[in-house]
Specification:
Blueprint lengths: L3 E8 L3 E4 H7 L4 H5 L6 E4 L6 H15 L7 E7 L10 H9 L6 E5 L5 H15 L4 E10 L12 E10 L8 E11 L5 E2 L8 E2 L1 H23 L7 E4 L4 H15 L3 H11 L5 H6 L6 H13 L7 E8 L3 E9 L10 H6 L2 E2 L2 H13 L17 E7 L2 E6 L2 H6 L18
Parallel strand pairs: 2-14, 4-5, 4-6, 11-12
Antiparallel strand pairs: 1-7, 1-8, 2-3, 6-7, 8-13, 9-10, 12-13, 15-16
Helix pairs in contact: 3-4, 6-7
């Protein structure tokens, strides 16, 4: 039996700008963003928010509902392409902020948007050898592009944290299949040199590389899996929602579907997962798992027993196509996406630019601000002092209390069982 995702949670920045506002400011037809890209709103990081705080807050949300799980974590891996240090991993900051056990491996995985999937597959294998422990896998990223560039409207930020363990299929939120298809190719479609803060991208070429990776990974999967039932849902890497539509068009061509069947299939098996991505933007390594969270929130218990296929793409490039089956662990999933979206503050384009610039200034040495407001965050990035990043636990007492709190009810399903 392969590992399973037992539960997951999402954290996003506390500000956003609408694509309607952005299009007006950039003198662009709004349909270019809303229809061409499939985007509605874009998450904006302000000062005090970074890859670490997003990662820690997503995991903190998990432990709010599963306080008994924290002491069982023996592996903490963060998949990110917006790490905060060339040597020190995001995972070790998260380890301290969450108070994870000292007998815990903590490290970072990087391969553009594929990093979190590599971490998930590694964690799935690890829990087979450590059936009494849990793995914490977090996808956390901030997508930044040059102001006024073609990539600007595809920015976004957020984190998705997943608890991974060994579970019976009926107890898992998503039981992962041991079969997966992979495809790798050395390309320069999207990259970020170490000497600049914004990424470089060859837009059309990158989309072609994505589709080549999808076909290659899917064909590799089919060679191993043979004739399997058609999955009930398909989730794709979502740099922007319209890319998922393009991906499904390629999958439909491979299956020989007509245009009418493609559109019906798209609406039934792909669109239910994309609503949150439309309102948050590109989460890089987390975009696929944000779609998974969106599907769980939208469909709930309807998913039990249903199969889902997931496609992960990381520029550079590496791709993976894998599947899973939903179990009664879906009852553990705390429907929180609508509430965190509603708790955000909308800003205009001038405010967005100020937040963007202020956030970048925080990445400089001597930017430490001990009184930086935390705006309702669980954790705040205070800046850099003597080349060391400083963080604050805004709800430290609550965080410490997690280890002593009584487990919350899991709605008609059993808590995580020790093997």
């Amino acid at each position: 039996m392969n590992g399973a995702i037992l539960d997951l949670a999402v954290a996003i920045p506390h500000h956003y700008v609408s694509h309607e506002e952005l299009a007006r400011a950039r003198d662009v037809e709004v349909d270019k963003y809303q229809q061409g890209l499939g985007c509605e709103e874009m998450a904006i990081c302000g000062p005090g928010e970074d890859t670490v705080t997003l990662a820690a807050e997503a995991a903190w949300r998990l432990f709010e509902h599963h306080p008994e799980a924290r002491e069982r974590v023996g592996l903490c891996v963060v998949g990110t392409e917006s790490g905060v240090d060339a040597a020190k991993p995001v995972a070790i900051y998260v380890h301290r902020l969450l108070g994870l056990p000292p007998n815990c491996r903590a490290f970072e995985v990087k391969h553009a948007c594929y990093g979190a999937t590599a971490a998930l597959q590694m964690a799935s294998a690890w829990v087979q050898q450590h059936p009494k422990r849990l793995a914490l896998v977090i996808a956390s990223d901030i997508a930044r592009y040059e102001r006024g560039s073609a990539g600007e409207p595809t920015q976004g930020a957020g984190a998705v944290a997943m608890l991974v363990g060994k579970a019976e299929e009926r107890d898992a939120l998503l039981q992962l299949s041991p079969i997966s298809g992979a495809f790798a190719s050395d390309v320069y479609d999207f990259w970020r040199p170490p000497y600049q803060s914004e990424a470089l991208v060859k837009g059309k070429y990158s989309m072609n590389c994505y589709l080549e990776g999808l076909q290659g990974a899917y064909e590799d999967y089919c060679r191993q899996a043979g004739d399997e039932p058609t999955p009930d849902y398909l989730l794709y890497h979502v740099p922007f929602p319209a890319m998922a539509r393009k991906a499904h068009r390629r999958m439909s061509d491979l299956r020989g579907l007509s245009e009418d069947l493609y559109l019906d299939d798209l609406e039934r098996r792909v669109e239910p997962a994309l609503w949150a991505n439309r309102k948050i933007g590109n989460v890089y390594s987390g975009s696929l798992y944000l779609a998974l969270a969106g599907l769980c929130e939208r469909k709930g218990a309807h998913l039990i027993g249903r199969r889902v296929a997931l496609f992960s793409y990381g520029s550079g490039s590496c791709s993976e196509y894998f599947t899973g089956r939903f179990g009664e662990g879906i009852y553990r999933f705390h429907r929180h996406l609508h509430s965190v979206l509603e708790a955000r503050t909308e800003v205009d384009v001038d405010q967005y630019e100020l937040l963007h610039d202020a956030s970048l200034k925080m990445e400089r040495n001597h930017s430490f601000q001990p009184a930086l407001p935390h705006q309702g965050q669980a954790f705040t990035f205070l800046g850099i002092r003597d080349h060391e990043r400083c963080y604050r636990q805004n709800f430290a007492e609550d965080a410490v209390a997690l280890s002593n709190a009584r487990p919350t009810a899991l709605h008609h399903t059993r808590p995580f069982q020790r093997a």
